[in-house]
Amino acid sequence: MSLTDADLSFVRDLPLTQQAIAFARERHGEQRRDADGAPFLVHPLEVAALLERSGYPDHVVASAVLHDVLEDTNVERGELKRRFGPEVCHLVDAVSDDVSIEDEEARKADARERVRAADRDAAAVFAADKISKVRELRMLLANGKIEPVRAETKLRRYRLALDMLEDVIPGSRLVEILRFELESLESLPPSAGDQPD
C-alpha cells in the first residue's frame, strides 16, 4: 500500500494515531474488504476520520484505527496495552467481539451490552464503526455480493446498535449520521448492478 500518514490530513497532529496506522497497516497486512476489494485498512481509517472530524482526542482516534486488530489479526491485548497504553486497549477491547462466543447473535448482543456498560468514548468508536459498516453494506448490496437475508440480518443488528447508542450518547453527531445512513439505505436501497463498471 502506498498510503503514508502524510497523505492523511486528519492525522497530521495526532502522533498516537500515526503510530496506530503503522501498526494496523502491518498487522492487517494484505487483508481486503469484501465490498470493494480495497485494503482492509480503509475501514478503520474511515472510522478514525469520523471520530477526528467529530472532535475526539488522539487516543480515541488511535483506538478507532486499531478497533479490529483483536478480532481480525493475531494481536493480543497485552501487546496492544504495552504499545498503546491502557486507555486505547480498553477502548479496543470494549468494541471487539468476544470470539469465544460461538453464536453470532449472542456475540453481537454481548458486544452491544459491553459498549453500553463502557464509556462514551467506546460508544463513539462503536458508532463510527457502524456508520462505516452500513456504508459498506450499501456497496455489498449494489455489487450483488450479499444475500438479501444476510443483509437484513446486518440491518437488524445495526438498528439495535442505533437504539443502544441513542440511549448511551443521545444527540451525538455520530448517532445522527448512523441514523441517516440506516434510513437512507432502507428508504433508497441500491439494486444489484448500481455500481458503475
From N to C, what is the helix and strand string?
HHHHHHHHH
In CATH, the topology is named: Hypothetical protein af1432
Q: What would CATH call the homologous superfamily?
A: Hypothetical protein af1432
Question: What value does the Rg take, in angstroms?
Answer: 16 Å
Mean pLDDT: 94
β-strand amount: under 5%
Extract low-pLDDT stretches.
none
- Main pleated sheet: none
Termini separation (Å)?
23 Å
Secondary-structure class:
mainly alpha
When the domains are counted, the total is 1
CATH architectural grouping: Orthogonal Bundle
Shape: globular
The overall strand count is: 0
Number of helices: 9
CATH class: Mainly Alpha
Question: What do these coordinates show?
Answer:
This protein is mainly α and 197 residues long. The protein has one domain (5-187): Orthogonal Bundle (Hypothetical protein af1432). Helices cover 66% and strands 0% of the residues. It has nine helices and no strands. It has helices at residues 15-28, 42-53, 58-66, 69-72, 77-95, 104-117, 120-142, 148-168, 173-187. The model has no long low-confidence stretch (mean pLDDT 94).
